[in-house]
Design goal:
The complex is a heterotrimer.
Chain A: H1 10-32, H2 43-69, H3 76-95, H4 108-112, H5 128-152, H6 157-176, E1 188-189, E2 193-194, E3 197-198, H7 202-228, H8 230-240, H9 242-247, H10 252-278, E4 280-281, H11 288-301, H12 307-326, H13 330-345, H14 349-355, H15 373-379
Antiparallel strand pairs in A: 1-4, 2-3
Helix pairs in contact in A: 1-7, 2-7, 2-10, 2-11, 2-12, 3-5, 3-10, 5-10, 7-8, 7-10, 8-10, 11-12, 11-13, 11-14, 12-14
Chain B: H1 2-8, E1 32-41, E2 44-54, E3 59-63, H2 70-77, E4 85-90, E5 94-95, H3 101-107, E6 109-112, H4 124-131, H5 138-143, H6 148-160, H7 176-190, E7 194-198, H8 206-219, E8 224-228, H9 232-238, E9 241-246, E10 249-254, H10 256-261, H11 263-273
Chain C: H1 3-19, H2 29-39, H3 45-55, H4 60-68, E1 72-75, E2 81-86, E3 91-95, E4 102-107, E5 111-113, H5 118-132, H6 138-148, H7 154-166, H8 170-186, H9 192-197, H10 202-213, H11 217-266, H12 274-291, H13 296-321, H14 330-351, E6 368-372, E7 375-378, H15 379-401, H16 403-413, H17 415-420, H18 425-447, H19 459-472, H20 477-498, H21 500-517, H22 527-531
Antiparallel strand pairs in C: 1-2, 1-5, 2-3, 3-4, 6-7
Helix pairs in contact in C: 2-3, 4-5, 5-6, 6-8, 7-8, 8-10, 10-11, 11-15, 11-18, 11-19, 11-20, 12-13, 12-18, 13-18, 15-16, 15-18, 16-18, 19-20, 19-21, 20-21
The chains are: A mainly alpha, B alpha/beta, C alpha+beta.
């Protein structure tokens, strides 16, 4: 079966093994090392690592469409944020009457805005199963509609990148509006518990961390399953020679749409796991700069490798944590410099640098981002 | 109850997912019929009242100077370019103008581009695998499994195009001539009823050219082949019937000898060549 | 009149002006007038004021203003009237009303305030306006006639009518007529409604509204009719205003996008740092004004070449250091230039300040052009609109008529062929990119007059700019112009009923959908060249 095929693959085995080991080690160090030990991993660190893993899953989702399908989405932050908001709405409803205003149904910000009843699109979010389905559906449907329109009319390359950016920008503006009913500027916050567990306890935090690790493992497996299947090869075909693929009888737009929607849903899951760990979701997650930052994680790690995306996401975000702690002003210089250095000097990313020899057969020789001359000819 | 059964039946193919492909009807005449087709780009008439008929099993060569509209004609047949007026029929049942590129491809029209277009990031084997005539919808492609019979078929074609040794190499590192062959191989994997071949021998050695001529002639009869080529020697070696395009319409049609003696053709085309 | 005679007259006038302060105060008729006013009993105040007004004394206005604000006092000893400049504390600072000279402090005990009652105070405004109606400058007369609208009462009717007889300026006449008509309508004069029907002034409308609510049915009906006519005209004016704002916003978009239309549209380079080049242009203007304090206008004009050079230089550095290595890899170029944009933003934050800087608008650019009572067009926007059109025309000229333009088009269409014909493609790349970047700098100079100059200035325009270029059709300067102007107008049209943010969202969604429908924009390039 397509999903289990990658399990026979060496790189997937290593990846899952490392991930599993990391989860076990962190859990062990957190639970069984005494507080004052140098090896103890604090709850704060566990949550921080959990956050990195969310970003890693998001990066894997971006790599799936960018690396294998050639679609540079500058709007994946929107899918991430939508998944986050779906989760945030559930967590908001879980607060119940413990909010500042004590309204049993309405979240605080609605009471503050003098709303009388819950808007229709908030209905159902008090039930975990519904909210969790929406975590997949909200980004999935947006990706479906947007992708359907874009791919049908063959909007690709730079154009697609620009309109995905416009999409997330428009959503950011929309979510900033109080009238939208998502808490405007402040977003959703002050969460209490998830599935009955208190979000502020260490045990819940550890649980979320482990859940994120598992989600990353499954997400990686799904993506790997797709890219090692025939569909994965068709994706690469679409990426490198779209017209040729079409003349072979493949409906390129449907392949693109399928992979795009899967990727959006994975991004949504990442967002949903992110929100309870950082305790807030607000419109800044929709900001174009965040979306483009994700792309640089993937570029740094190495495109079209999946595990490279994970490495890139964790490295960049670790650097961000360090920088913003030590010298916050320098962070944007560092990030900006990273963008330039990676694209100019490290087009294949860290993965390309480290594992070049190992994947001689599969790795695209030509730069995967450039349509080859033949493709240009074909579209002329 | 029955509805649930119906929906849960995974072998069922929903109507909207069924490919439009259905057998081509050639009982009543030609396999390809272009009638009074016109296309213009920004006022430039690329195709001008073009009429063309290809019979089932025919091998037809199309020649013409640059800008005669050869590639545009192929674009129209394969659904890439929509003509301003006119009609294009595949058999007597399928109006190609209402169909998309993948539909036309699934219907049985294969195309080789002017410049060889293969998937350079995939191996030769994988290139052929993708071209294979199978269910090309998304989910079946995701679940596709490499069966022995598929493998045999691919190996068979690999032998035909003489690329067995390069089976697991990336297509990107093939030579120009090998890429031409690979693309022809991909056409063969598609098992099309009609092959549109744009400049198949560009960049090939004399020997390779001969093999190509052999291959194309052997295909004719079972399949219909339309070859666009500049190389006169090659055309002469395979042609039974030649069509000369000039300024977007048919200037002359007939055997190579008839055509090359046509004064009009000599004037606009051969005259320039000579 | 001969020149000599007019010169002599001028000379005499000058002499008399110079000799004014020297004139003995005793002889000044103004002294008498003021003392009269100060001594007049309540019933005679109007008469005394009338005397001052009809004297035609140029100082009358300042006296009346001082009188109205309780700043006219008499020195108990001498009986002279003075103007109190500062009445705080024990000693008041006073000035001579006749010469304007400061007379120093004087104990308030020695001063006697010239009293004014509320009835007079109410009339005073009208009276002062009447005074201004005699001014030599027709603009002052028009302004005062406008002031007087709605304030006319029985006492002012006569002098106003007299003034109307004398007035020759049509605009002033018009105003006075309207001012009189407002009074007459309030008195039940049906004929006067016709005069107000032609006015867009809010006070005319208020008067008509009062008439509609009044108890004179004939008048009410007529007033209602007149209001409907006015409403119609107002609608037209509002439409014109929206159009103006739309074109103004559009011209900003065009300015921001036109440089991009060159780098992206012509060269195919995605420059995400384009917004920051705009920002550099804006900061250049700010810097210029710091260098030339007190001369904002000169600084602004100098900023035009300076902004161009600064941004063009930055563009060349970006092209040489990054973009040239990423030729043919548009998505990588996008990422790298985005990195550059982050660096530039942070650079400005670190070196200058994270806060917004204020750029002064020179006097000749501030204020507005008043078309009528309901429509006035702000001048700075008009300048920016004109500037955008000029920049566009120049660019068109460069691309169409110069050697550089020819070479740019040659290199874009077929690089190798152009090179083999002796065109140095690398040089053309640099020049083109510098041109596009320089235009971004010009956009920044213009924007500094409309918005805050801060590190985020560029970010706010980058998405919009790309939208404009893509909407207009890549590689088409005309398309960019039309797309920019129309998007600006659409945005402004939506704003009244959707609000600013929603209008922006709607426009974005509209463009996203539009691109799905027509991926190549409004004015696509067709045929082989477009896809090669």
């Amino acid at each position: 079966m397509w999903l289990t095929r990658p399990l026979r693959e060496r790189s997937t085995q290593i990846f899952l093994g490392v991930l599993f080991a990391a989860l076990v080690v962190v859990t062990f160090l957190h639970l069984f090392m005494p507080q004052d030990s140098a090896l103890h991993v604090s709850a704060y660190t566990v949550t921080l690592l959990g956050k990195y893993l969310c970003y890693a899953l998001l990066a894997v989702a971006v790599d799936l469409v960018w690396g294998y399908l050639g679609i540079l989405s500058l709007g994946h932050g929107a899918f991430f944020a939508l998944g986050g908001y779906a989760m945030g709405m559930y967590l908001m409803r879980q607060i119940g009457d413990r909010g500042t205003y004590g309204d049993p149904v309405l979240p605080d910000f609605m009471v503050f805005l003098n709303w009388q009843e819950l808007p229709w699109y908030w209905l159902g979010f008090d039930m975990a199963w519904f909210a969790f389905i929406m975590v997949l559906l909200a980004p999935g449907i947006l990706a479906l509609v947007f992708g359907f329109l874009a791919f049908r009319s063959r909007v690709t390359g730079v154009y697609l990148s620009i309109i995905t950016q416009a999409l997330t920008f428009a959503l950011m503006l929309a979510f900033f509006r109080n009238e939208m009913g998502f808490g405007g500027n402040n977003g959703l916050t002050d969460f209490r518990d998830i599935l009955g567990f208190n979000l502020r306890t260490d045990a819940t935090r550890l649980g979320l961390f482990i859940a994120t690790g598992i989600a990353l493992g499954i997400g990686y497996l799904i993506c790997r399953g797709i890219v090692t299947s025939k569909l994965g090869r068709v994706s690469i075909a679409c990426r490198d020679a779209e017209a040729r693929t079409r003349f072979l009888g493949y409906r390129v737009e449907r392949v693109q749409l399928f992979v795009f929607v899967v990727s959006a849903m994975l991004a949504g899951v990442a967002g949903a796991l992110y929100v309870p760990q950082v305790g807030i979701i607000n419109p800044s997650e929709f900001s174009p700069i965040f979306s483009i930052e994700i792309v640089v994680w993937v570029a740094l790690g190495g495109r079209a490798t999946l595990y490279g995306a994970v490495i890139g996401a964790i490295l960049v975000n670790y650097a961000k944590t360090v920088f913003t702690g030590v010298m916050p002003d320098a962070w944007l210089f560092a990030l900006g410099g990273l963008f330039v250095l990676v694209t100019v000097f490290l087009p294949k990313g860290i993965a390309g640098l480290l594992f070049e020899r190992r994947k001689k057969r599969k790795d695209p020789d030509a730069d995967p981002n450039t349509p080859s001359d033949t493709e240009r000819e074909a579209t002329a | 109850m029955s509805i649930i059964e119906e929906l849960s039946n995974r072998n069922r193919v929903f109507n909207f997912l069924t490919p439009v492909a259905s057998p081509v009807d050639v009982r009543h005449g030609p396999i390809l019929y272009l009638d009074d087709v016109n296309v213009s780009f920004d006022g430039f008439k690329a195709i001008n009242n073009l009429n063309l008929t290809i019979d089932d099993g025919e091998l037809r060569c199309i020649i013409g100077p640059n800008g005669a509209g050869k590639t545009t004609m192929m674009d129209i047949i394969t659904g890439k370019t929509a003509p301003d007026t006119g009609s294009v029929w595949f058999g007597s049942r399928h109006n190609l103008l209402t169909m998309s590129e993948p539909d036309i491809a699934s219907l049985g029209i294969g195309r080789k581009f002017q410049k060889p277009t293969v998937f350079e990031a995939l191996t030769v084997f994988e290139n052929l695998e993708l071209a294979m005539a199978t269910d090309k919808r998304v989910i079946p492609t995701l679940r596709a499994v490499m069966k022995v019979e598929y493998r045999d078929r691919i190996d068979e074609v690999l032998e035909t195009i003489n690329l067995q040794a390069e089976r697991d190499q990336l297509a990107g590192i093939l030579s120009h001539g090998q890429k031409q062959w690979l693309e022809i191989g991909m056409l063969l994997m598609q098992k099309p009823r009609l092959l549109l071949v744009d400049e198949p021998v560009a960049g090939m050695t004399e020997q390779e050219m001969e093999r190509t001529a052999e291959l194309l002639t052997s295909l004719a009869g079972k399949q219909s082949v339309v070859v666009v080529e500049h190389d006169m020697g090659f055309v002469r070696s395979i042609a039974r019937k030649v069509t000369v395009l000039h300024q977007g319409s048919v200037l002359a049609e007939g055997t190579m000898d008839q055509v090359s003696n046509d004064p009009e053709v000599i004037k606009v085309y051969l005259g320039e060549e000579a | 009149m001969s020149i000599i005679r007019s010169l002599t007259l001028l000379f005499i006038a000058l002499i008399s002006l110079l000799s004014l302060p020297a004139q003995a105060q005793e002889d000044d008729p103004g002294r008498e007038l003021l003392i009269n006013l100060a001594e007049a009993p309540a019933s005679k105040v109007e008469e005394a004021l009338g005397a001052i007004v009809s004297s035609g004394d140029p100082r009358a206005r300042s006296w009346l203003e001082a009188f109205g604000s309780n700043r006219l006092s008499r020195i108990k000893d001498t009986g002279d009237v003075v103007v109190v400049l500062n009445n705080r504390g024990r000693d008041w600072e006073i000035a001579n009303p006749l010469t304007g000279e400061n007379m120093g402090d004087m104990s308030r005990r020695e001063l006697d305030r010239v009293a004014i009652n509320n009835r007079i105070r109410g009339q005073l405004e009208g009276i002062i306006a009447m005074l201004d109606l005699n001014a030599a400058d027709p603009d002052v007369r028009e302004a005062s006639a406008q002031d007087i609208m709605g304030k006319v009462d029985a006492t002012l009717v006569k002098p106003l009518e007299a003034r109307l007889e004398l007035e020759e300026n049509a605009a002033v006449r018009n105003r006075i007529e309207q001012a009189l008509a407002i009074y007459r309508v309030s008195e039940g004069d049906i004929e006067a409604v016709d005069i107000l029907a032609g006015s867009l002034h809010p006070r005319a409308r208020a008067a008509l509204n009062n008439a509609v609510r009044g108890d004179n049915p004939a008048l009410a009906a007529k007033a209602k009719q007149a209001l409907a006519t006015i409403e119609q005209k107002l609608k037209l004016n509002r439409a014109a205003e929206t159009l103006y704002f739309g074109l103004s916003l559009g011209s900003v978009l065009v300015l921001a996008a036109i440089g991009l239309a060159i780098t992206f549209g012509v060269m195919g380079v995605i420059n995400m740092a384009h917004g920051e080049l705009i920002m550099l242009g804006a900061y250049t203007t700010w810097g210029m004004q710091q260098l030339l304090p007190g001369q904002p206008g000169l600084a602004l004009i100098l900023s035009i070449p300076a902004g161009f050079m600064v941004a063009a230089t930055a563009g060349i550095i970006i092209e040489r250091s990054v973009i040239q290595y990423l030729k043919g890899r548009p998505l990588e170029t996008l990422l790298a230039t985005f990195g550059i944009s982050l660096i530039l933003q942070q650079l400005v934050r670190t070196v200058i300040s994270p806060q917004n800087r204020t750029v002064v608008t020179p006097e000749w650019m501030s204020g507005s052009l008043v078309v009528n009572d309901a429509l006035s067009l702000t001048l700075n926007r008009m300048y920016v609109l004109g500037f955008a059109l000029v920049v566009f025309a120049l660019l068109m000229l460069i691309m169409r008529k110069t050697r550089l333009g020819l070479e740019v088009r040659a290199v874009t269409q077929n690089r190798k062929m152009a090179q083999s014909m002796g065109i140095r493609a690398t040089r053309v790349d640099i020049m083109t990119f510098a041109l596009g970047s320089g235009v971004a700098g010009l956009a920044g100079v213009a924007l500094s007059q409309l918005t805050n100059v801060g590190p985020n200035l560029g970010q706010n325009y980058i998405i919009d700019s790309f939208m404009v270029v893509v909407f207009g059709g890549v590689g088409n300067l005309w398309g960019t112009l039309i797309a920019g102007l129309s998007l600006g107008t659409i945005n402004q049209l939506l704003e009244p009923w959707a609000g600013a943010v929603l209008a922006k969202i709607i426009v974005l969604v509209f463009i996203i959908l539009f691109i799905q429908k027509r991926p190549k924009g409004l004015f696509p390039q067709k045929g082989r060249a477009a896809e090669g």
